Amino acid sequence: MTVFQLPQPTAFESTISEKNTHLFILKNRSGMQIALTDYGARLVSALIPDKHGNLVDVVLGFDSIDKYLNAQEQYHGATIGRVCNRIADGKFTIKDKDYILSKNNNSNALHGGPEGFHRKVWDRQVSFKKNIDFYYISPDGEEGYPGKVTVHVNYELSNDNEIIIKYRATTDQVTVLNMTNHAYFNLNGEGNGNILDHFAQINATEYLPINDQQIPTGTKESVVNTVFDFKEPMKLGHFIHQKDDQLKFANGYDHSFVNNNSIKKAAATILSEDTGIQLDVLTDLPTIHLYTGNYLANDKGKSGKEYQQHGGFCLEAQHYINSPNQENFTPILLNPGEEYTATIIYKFSIKK
Which CATH number does the domain housing residue 249 bear? Predict the structure, then answer.
Protein backbone atom coordinates (compact mmCIF):
# COMPACT_ATOMS: atom_id res chain seq x y z
CA MET A 1 0.00 0.00 0.00
CA THR A 2 1.31 3.43 -0.92
CA VAL A 3 1.95 5.67 2.07
CA PHE A 4 1.21 9.22 0.96
CA GLN A 5 2.82 12.26 2.57
CA LEU A 6 3.36 15.89 1.74
CA PRO A 7 6.57 16.97 -0.02
CA GLN A 8 9.33 18.56 2.05
CA PRO A 9 9.24 22.39 1.96
CA THR A 10 13.03 22.53 1.59
CA ALA A 11 12.69 20.83 -1.82
CA PHE A 12 10.79 23.89 -3.03
CA GLU A 13 13.29 26.49 -1.86
CA SER A 14 14.91 27.87 -4.98
CA THR A 15 15.32 31.06 -7.00
CA ILE A 16 13.70 31.57 -10.40
CA SER A 17 14.10 34.84 -12.29
CA GLU A 18 15.49 36.45 -9.11
CA LYS A 19 12.42 35.46 -7.08
CA ASN A 20 12.39 32.87 -4.28
CA THR A 21 10.07 29.87 -4.38
CA HIS A 22 8.44 28.10 -1.45
CA LEU A 23 6.03 25.35 -0.41
CA PHE A 24 3.11 26.21 1.87
CA ILE A 25 0.97 23.76 3.87
CA LEU A 26 -2.60 24.24 5.07
CA LYS A 27 -4.44 21.84 7.41
CA ASN A 28 -8.01 21.70 8.69
CA ARG A 29 -9.76 20.11 11.67
CA SER A 30 -10.98 17.19 9.56
CA GLY A 31 -7.49 15.87 8.92
CA MET A 32 -7.19 17.13 5.36
CA GLN A 33 -3.92 18.75 4.29
CA ILE A 34 -2.94 20.61 1.14
CA ALA A 35 0.37 21.91 -0.18
CA LEU A 36 0.78 24.87 -2.54
CA THR A 37 3.71 26.59 -4.17
CA ASP A 38 4.20 30.14 -5.41
CA TYR A 39 5.67 28.74 -8.63
CA GLY A 40 2.59 28.95 -10.82
CA ALA A 41 0.33 29.64 -7.80
CA ARG A 42 -0.33 25.93 -7.94
CA LEU A 43 -1.81 23.10 -5.92
CA VAL A 44 0.89 20.49 -5.24
CA SER A 45 -0.86 17.96 -2.98
CA ALA A 46 -4.19 17.25 -1.32
CA LEU A 47 -4.18 14.56 1.38
CA ILE A 48 -7.72 13.27 1.99
CA PRO A 49 -8.76 10.61 4.57
CA ASP A 50 -10.32 7.75 2.56
CA LYS A 51 -13.14 5.42 3.67
CA HIS A 52 -10.64 3.46 5.80
CA GLY A 53 -9.17 6.58 7.40
CA ASN A 54 -5.92 6.40 5.40
CA LEU A 55 -4.57 9.63 3.92
CA VAL A 56 -4.58 9.58 0.12
CA ASP A 57 -2.89 12.23 -2.04
CA VAL A 58 -5.39 12.78 -4.85
CA VAL A 59 -3.45 15.47 -6.75
CA LEU A 60 -0.82 14.62 -9.36
CA GLY A 61 2.43 16.54 -9.04
CA PHE A 62 6.06 16.45 -7.98
CA ASP A 63 8.07 16.53 -4.78
CA SER A 64 10.52 19.30 -5.75
CA ILE A 65 10.60 22.56 -7.65
CA ASP A 66 13.22 21.17 -10.04
CA LYS A 67 10.86 18.40 -11.14
CA TYR A 68 8.14 20.93 -11.93
CA LEU A 69 10.61 22.90 -14.02
CA ASN A 70 11.71 19.84 -15.97
CA ALA A 71 8.39 18.01 -16.34
CA GLN A 72 6.91 17.24 -19.73
CA GLU A 73 3.50 18.29 -18.41
CA GLN A 74 3.91 21.90 -17.27
CA TYR A 75 0.39 22.57 -16.00
CA HIS A 76 0.06 20.27 -12.97
CA GLY A 77 -2.06 22.12 -10.39
CA ALA A 78 -1.24 25.53 -11.83
CA THR A 79 -3.15 28.77 -12.16
CA ILE A 80 -3.70 29.20 -15.90
CA GLY A 81 -3.83 32.60 -17.60
CA ARG A 82 -4.14 35.03 -19.04
CA VAL A 83 -6.52 32.93 -21.11
CA CYS A 84 -6.89 29.23 -20.41
CA ASN A 85 -7.38 26.62 -23.10
CA ARG A 86 -7.02 27.49 -26.79
CA ILE A 87 -7.26 30.68 -28.82
CA ALA A 88 -7.54 29.81 -32.49
CA ASP A 89 -4.59 30.82 -34.67
CA GLY A 90 -3.11 32.68 -31.68
CA LYS A 91 -4.87 35.94 -32.43
CA PHE A 92 -7.91 38.04 -31.61
CA THR A 93 -9.22 41.56 -32.18
CA ILE A 94 -10.37 44.26 -29.75
CA LYS A 95 -11.91 47.44 -31.19
CA ASP A 96 -10.44 46.81 -34.66
CA LYS A 97 -6.95 46.25 -33.27
CA ASP A 98 -5.37 42.84 -33.86
CA TYR A 99 -3.32 41.11 -31.17
CA ILE A 100 -0.90 38.30 -32.02
CA LEU A 101 -0.11 35.80 -29.27
CA SER A 102 2.68 33.32 -28.68
CA LYS A 103 1.69 30.03 -30.32
CA ASN A 104 2.44 26.83 -28.42
CA ASN A 105 -0.20 24.34 -29.64
CA ASN A 106 0.27 23.91 -33.38
CA SER A 107 -1.20 27.13 -34.79
CA ASN A 108 -3.02 27.98 -31.55
CA ALA A 109 -2.19 29.74 -28.30
CA LEU A 110 -2.71 27.41 -25.33
CA HIS A 111 -3.07 28.22 -21.63
CA GLY A 112 -1.67 31.75 -21.83
CA GLY A 113 1.34 30.83 -23.94
CA PRO A 114 4.66 29.11 -23.17
CA GLU A 115 5.46 31.69 -20.47
CA GLY A 116 1.97 32.04 -19.06
CA PHE A 117 0.93 32.37 -15.42
CA HIS A 118 1.93 28.74 -14.78
CA ARG A 119 5.61 29.69 -15.30
CA LYS A 120 5.65 32.73 -13.02
CA VAL A 121 6.77 33.00 -9.40
CA TRP A 122 3.90 34.75 -7.65
CA ASP A 123 4.12 36.95 -4.58
CA ARG A 124 2.15 35.67 -1.63
CA GLN A 125 0.58 36.38 1.74
CA VAL A 126 -0.39 33.65 4.24
CA SER A 127 -3.24 34.41 6.66
CA PHE A 128 -3.34 32.42 9.91
CA LYS A 129 -2.42 29.20 8.07
CA LYS A 130 -6.01 29.10 6.75
CA ASN A 131 -5.60 30.65 3.32
CA ILE A 132 -2.97 31.95 0.94
CA ASP A 133 -3.32 34.92 -1.38
CA PHE A 134 -1.05 34.74 -4.41
CA TYR A 135 -0.71 37.86 -6.54
CA TYR A 136 1.06 38.73 -9.77
CA ILE A 137 1.31 41.78 -12.04
CA SER A 138 1.30 40.79 -15.70
CA PRO A 139 2.90 43.57 -17.77
CA ASP A 140 1.35 45.07 -20.87
CA GLY A 141 2.22 42.93 -23.89
CA GLU A 142 3.09 39.76 -21.95
CA GLU A 143 2.68 36.83 -24.35
CA GLY A 144 1.01 39.30 -26.71
CA TYR A 145 -1.90 40.29 -24.43
CA PRO A 146 -2.74 43.98 -23.97
CA GLY A 147 -2.85 45.85 -20.68
CA LYS A 148 -1.13 45.62 -17.32
CA VAL A 149 -3.20 43.14 -15.34
CA THR A 150 -3.03 42.71 -11.57
CA VAL A 151 -4.17 39.24 -10.53
CA HIS A 152 -5.01 37.72 -7.12
CA VAL A 153 -5.66 34.00 -6.55
CA ASN A 154 -6.76 33.00 -3.05
CA TYR A 155 -6.72 29.41 -1.83
CA GLU A 156 -8.64 28.51 1.34
CA LEU A 157 -8.95 25.09 2.99
CA SER A 158 -12.26 24.90 4.84
CA ASN A 159 -13.13 22.57 7.70
CA ASP A 160 -15.67 20.98 5.35
CA ASN A 161 -12.83 19.61 3.19
CA GLU A 162 -13.26 22.25 0.51
CA ILE A 163 -10.46 23.87 -1.46
CA ILE A 164 -11.97 27.25 -2.27
CA ILE A 165 -10.21 29.17 -5.04
CA LYS A 166 -11.17 32.80 -5.65
CA TYR A 167 -9.86 34.89 -8.52
CA ARG A 168 -9.73 38.69 -8.78
CA ALA A 169 -8.12 40.88 -11.43
CA THR A 170 -8.03 44.45 -12.73
CA THR A 171 -6.51 46.02 -15.83
CA ASP A 172 -5.34 49.44 -17.02
CA GLN A 173 -6.62 48.91 -20.59
CA VAL A 174 -9.16 46.72 -22.34
CA THR A 175 -7.99 43.12 -22.44
CA VAL A 176 -9.24 39.53 -22.30
CA LEU A 177 -9.03 37.24 -19.27
CA ASN A 178 -10.14 33.67 -18.55
CA MET A 179 -8.39 31.90 -15.68
CA THR A 180 -8.74 28.41 -14.22
CA ASN A 181 -6.98 25.82 -12.11
CA HIS A 182 -5.34 22.87 -13.87
CA ALA A 183 -5.11 20.28 -11.09
CA TYR A 184 -4.98 16.66 -12.21
CA PHE A 185 -6.84 14.35 -9.84
CA ASN A 186 -6.74 10.61 -9.27
CA LEU A 187 -9.08 9.68 -6.44
CA ASN A 188 -7.38 6.28 -6.11
CA GLY A 189 -4.21 8.19 -5.21
CA GLU A 190 -1.70 9.91 -7.48
CA GLY A 191 0.25 7.34 -9.46
CA ASN A 192 -2.24 4.55 -8.69
CA GLY A 193 -3.23 3.52 -12.21
CA ASN A 194 -5.69 5.33 -14.44
CA ILE A 195 -8.98 7.09 -13.71
CA LEU A 196 -11.16 5.26 -16.22
CA ASP A 197 -12.92 3.35 -13.42
CA HIS A 198 -13.96 6.59 -11.70
CA PHE A 199 -17.68 7.34 -11.84
CA ALA A 200 -18.49 10.76 -13.30
CA GLN A 201 -21.69 12.77 -13.19
CA ILE A 202 -21.72 16.06 -15.10
CA ASN A 203 -24.84 18.13 -14.57
CA ALA A 204 -25.01 19.53 -18.08
CA THR A 205 -27.40 19.06 -20.99
CA GLU A 206 -25.08 20.60 -23.59
CA TYR A 207 -21.42 20.38 -24.57
CA LEU A 208 -19.21 22.27 -27.02
CA PRO A 209 -18.18 20.19 -30.05
CA ILE A 210 -14.67 20.80 -31.41
CA ASN A 211 -12.87 20.57 -34.73
CA ASP A 212 -9.71 18.61 -35.48
CA GLN A 213 -7.62 21.45 -33.97
CA GLN A 214 -9.62 21.13 -30.72
CA ILE A 215 -11.22 24.53 -31.26
CA PRO A 216 -14.97 24.73 -30.49
CA THR A 217 -17.12 25.03 -33.58
CA GLY A 218 -19.14 27.84 -31.97
CA THR A 219 -22.25 25.75 -31.38
CA LYS A 220 -23.72 23.98 -28.38
CA GLU A 221 -24.96 20.44 -28.82
CA SER A 222 -27.19 18.24 -26.70
CA VAL A 223 -25.45 15.47 -24.76
CA VAL A 224 -28.43 13.12 -25.31
CA ASN A 225 -27.48 9.94 -27.18
CA THR A 226 -23.83 10.96 -27.31
CA VAL A 227 -20.63 9.91 -25.55
CA PHE A 228 -20.98 13.13 -23.51
CA ASP A 229 -24.08 12.10 -21.60
CA PHE A 230 -22.96 11.97 -17.98
CA LYS A 231 -26.21 13.23 -16.50
CA GLU A 232 -26.33 9.95 -14.59
CA PRO A 233 -23.14 8.49 -13.02
CA MET A 234 -21.04 6.71 -15.63
CA LYS A 235 -17.48 5.43 -15.62
CA LEU A 236 -15.09 7.81 -17.37
CA GLY A 237 -13.90 4.87 -19.43
CA HIS A 238 -17.37 3.72 -20.50
CA PHE A 239 -17.35 5.53 -23.86
CA ILE A 240 -13.75 6.66 -24.18
CA HIS A 241 -12.61 3.97 -26.61
CA GLN A 242 -15.64 4.17 -28.88
CA LYS A 243 -15.24 5.28 -32.48
CA ASP A 244 -16.39 8.88 -32.29
CA ASP A 245 -14.95 11.85 -34.17
CA GLN A 246 -15.08 14.09 -31.10
CA LEU A 247 -13.09 11.62 -29.00
CA LYS A 248 -10.71 11.06 -31.93
CA PHE A 249 -9.99 14.79 -32.26
CA ALA A 250 -8.97 14.97 -28.58
CA ASN A 251 -7.63 11.42 -28.09
CA GLY A 252 -10.23 11.10 -25.32
CA TYR A 253 -12.23 13.73 -23.46
CA ASP A 254 -10.98 17.30 -23.74
CA HIS A 255 -14.34 19.05 -23.95
CA SER A 256 -16.36 21.76 -22.25
CA PHE A 257 -19.82 21.21 -20.78
CA VAL A 258 -22.23 24.12 -20.39
CA ASN A 259 -22.75 24.87 -16.69
CA ASN A 260 -26.22 26.24 -15.98
CA ASN A 261 -25.99 25.52 -12.25
CA SER A 262 -25.55 28.01 -9.45
CA ILE A 263 -22.44 27.75 -7.32
CA LYS A 264 -24.58 25.95 -4.70
CA LYS A 265 -24.98 22.89 -6.94
CA ALA A 266 -22.14 20.73 -8.22
CA ALA A 267 -21.32 21.21 -11.88
CA ALA A 268 -19.58 17.82 -11.82
CA THR A 269 -19.03 14.93 -9.41
CA ILE A 270 -16.37 12.21 -9.60
CA LEU A 271 -16.23 9.15 -7.32
CA SER A 272 -13.65 6.43 -6.71
CA GLU A 273 -15.28 3.29 -5.35
CA ASP A 274 -11.83 2.02 -4.29
CA THR A 275 -11.16 4.81 -1.80
CA GLY A 276 -14.70 6.11 -1.38
CA ILE A 277 -13.41 9.63 -2.09
CA GLN A 278 -15.82 11.86 -3.96
CA LEU A 279 -14.98 15.19 -5.56
CA ASP A 280 -17.66 17.78 -6.28
CA VAL A 281 -16.73 20.81 -8.35
CA LEU A 282 -18.82 23.92 -7.76
CA THR A 283 -18.32 27.17 -9.65
CA ASP A 284 -19.90 30.38 -10.88
CA LEU A 285 -18.14 30.01 -14.25
CA PRO A 286 -20.21 29.09 -17.33
CA THR A 287 -18.43 25.89 -18.43
CA ILE A 288 -16.73 22.91 -16.85
CA HIS A 289 -14.00 21.35 -19.00
CA LEU A 290 -13.32 17.63 -18.68
CA TYR A 291 -9.82 16.45 -19.63
CA THR A 292 -8.94 12.79 -19.14
CA GLY A 293 -5.14 13.09 -19.18
CA ASN A 294 -4.95 11.91 -22.77
CA TYR A 295 -1.31 12.87 -23.20
CA LEU A 296 0.11 12.10 -19.79
CA ALA A 297 3.19 9.92 -20.14
CA ASN A 298 6.58 9.28 -18.55
CA ASP A 299 6.65 11.99 -15.86
CA LYS A 300 7.38 10.32 -12.52
CA GLY A 301 5.25 11.72 -9.72
CA LYS A 302 5.55 12.21 -5.97
CA SER A 303 5.16 8.52 -5.08
CA GLY A 304 7.79 7.50 -7.65
CA LYS A 305 5.32 6.09 -10.16
CA GLU A 306 4.98 7.20 -13.76
CA TYR A 307 1.87 9.12 -14.72
CA GLN A 308 0.45 7.01 -17.50
CA GLN A 309 -2.10 8.03 -20.11
CA HIS A 310 -5.44 8.71 -18.35
CA GLY A 311 -3.57 8.72 -15.03
CA GLY A 312 -5.49 11.81 -13.93
CA PHE A 313 -8.50 13.90 -14.83
CA CYS A 314 -9.01 17.66 -14.82
CA LEU A 315 -12.25 19.53 -14.28
CA GLU A 316 -11.35 23.06 -15.37
CA ALA A 317 -14.07 25.59 -14.63
CA GLN A 318 -13.74 28.42 -17.14
CA HIS A 319 -15.38 30.79 -19.59
CA TYR A 320 -16.06 29.61 -23.13
CA ILE A 321 -13.02 28.46 -25.09
CA ASN A 322 -11.85 30.79 -27.90
CA SER A 323 -14.48 33.30 -26.81
CA PRO A 324 -12.63 36.34 -28.31
CA ASN A 325 -13.12 34.79 -31.77
CA GLN A 326 -16.65 33.43 -31.35
CA GLU A 327 -19.65 35.72 -31.76
CA ASN A 328 -21.94 33.12 -30.15
CA PHE A 329 -19.92 32.90 -26.91
CA THR A 330 -20.04 35.29 -23.98
CA PRO A 331 -17.20 37.86 -24.24
CA ILE A 332 -14.30 37.70 -21.78
CA LEU A 333 -13.37 41.37 -22.08
CA LEU A 334 -12.08 43.12 -18.97
CA ASN A 335 -12.22 46.92 -18.97
CA PRO A 336 -10.41 49.47 -16.80
CA GLY A 337 -12.45 50.18 -13.68
CA GLU A 338 -13.98 46.69 -13.68
CA GLU A 339 -12.97 43.71 -11.55
CA TYR A 340 -12.75 40.17 -12.84
CA THR A 341 -14.03 37.68 -10.25
CA ALA A 342 -14.57 33.92 -10.29
CA THR A 343 -14.78 31.07 -7.80
CA ILE A 344 -13.94 27.36 -8.05
CA ILE A 345 -14.59 24.96 -5.17
CA TYR A 346 -13.17 21.44 -4.96
CA LYS A 347 -15.26 19.74 -2.26
CA PHE A 348 -14.23 16.30 -0.99
CA SER A 349 -16.37 13.79 0.88
CA ILE A 350 -16.54 10.04 1.56
CA LYS A 351 -19.08 7.60 0.14
CA LYS A 352 -18.81 4.29 1.99
Answer: 2.70.98.10
